[in-house]
Specification:
Elements: E1 2-7, E2 10-17, E3 22-26, H1 39-45, E4 49-53, H2 70-84, E5 88-93, H3 95-106, E6 111-117, H4 128-133, H5 135-150, H6 153-163, H7 171-182, H8 187-196, H9 200-203, E7 213-218, H10 227-237, E8 243-248, H11 255-258, H12 260-277
Parallel strand pairs: 3-4, 3-5, 5-6, 6-7, 7-8
Antiparallel strand pairs: 1-2, 2-4
Helix pairs in contact: 2-3, 5-6, 5-8
């Protein structure tokens, strides 16, 4: 059953399943809590209380928010964790990886650890050389740029096709669900707004994180010309010894969807260690 948390004049939607230590799952732009459909039940079965949340303006959360920065999204995640009685580990994908970083740095009493899945957690520079050398990066950048600039659902679907090199068994149905949701009035405007935000606010907080961080990056992620290098830069900006980088062979940008078993295999030991520490 979907629940809603009021934040000011708006609401965010979330599903809550399982019993045990709290894990909050936060998705990327142009998506919803449904992207964790393989991860959430497996974590609940492993003994965790799992909250899958729709970011502001996404899924079944309300439209009409004042901003969509990682800092603002982090405030929503912290509010949800307080509401659910925290503390928690946050698993954040893409923009939510950055938001999770801000949450951990600003509410250390509530955040025990982070699992950052293909995270946009640092200010990005445009890799012109990578566009020429890396066809996957060039193709992904083209489709992502068209979707973000034009608010075009078809371009977004083309990007998702590239960003999910290994398709889950329910891919056609899932793509149809995403298309229907993103065709609702206002949803692509949120995607565009999120796409215009800079990860710099999250990058500035990396040095202030005090909890363990697991960074998961796919070797075939089209969002970076060199995905491993991006993961290594995140670790370098964290306090020494807090970060762990794991590369998922053949994985794209949506590891929790198309490489869900690999994500679980790496995340479950991390969760056990991190939450036992608390």
């Amino acid at each position: 059953m979907t629940e809603h948390l009021s934040i000011g004049a708006n609401t965010i939607a979330y599903d809550l399943i399982g019993e045990g230590p709290l894990v909050v799952l936060a998705h990327g732009i142009g998506d919803s809590r449904h992207s964790y459909r393989f991860i959430a039940p497996a974590l609940a079965a492993a003994g965790y209380r799992v909250a899958s949340v729709d970011l502001r303006g996404c899924g079944d959360s309300s439209l009409g928010w004042d901003g969509y920065s990682r800092t603002e999204i982090a405030g929503d995640l912290v509010a949800l964790i307080r509401h659910l009685g925290g503390p928690a580990v946050i698993m954040g994908h893409s923009i939510s990886g950055g938001a999770a970083t801000v949450a951990a740095a600003t509410a250390p009493d509530l955040i025990r650890g982070l699992v950052e899945v293909a995270p946009f957690t640092r200010a990005q520079s445009f890799d012109v050389g990578g566009l020429f050398k890396n066809k996957l990066y060039r193709t992904g950048t083209l489709h992502l740029g068209r979707a973000a600039m034009l608010g075009n659902v078809k371009a977004w679907k083309r990007y998702l096709d590239v960003a999910n090199p290994a398709k889950p068994a329910d891919w056609d149905a899932e793509l149809g669900r995403i298309e229907a949701k993103m065709s609702e009035p206002g949803r692509m405007k949120v995607l565009k707004a999120m796409g215009m935000t800079s990860p710099g606010d999250a990058g500035a907080q990396l040095a202030n994180v005090r909890c363990p961080v697991l960074v998961l990056v796919g070797t075939e992620d089209p969002d970076w010309a060199d995905p491993r290098a991006e993961g290594e830069k995140i670790l370098a900006d964290l306090p020494e010894g807090l970060g762990q980088l794991e590369m998922i062979q053949g994985g794209g940008h949506y590891l929790h969807t198309s490489s869900s078993q690999a994500v679980l295999d790496l995340s479950l030991p991390f969760l056990a260690r991190t939450l036992a520490r608390g």
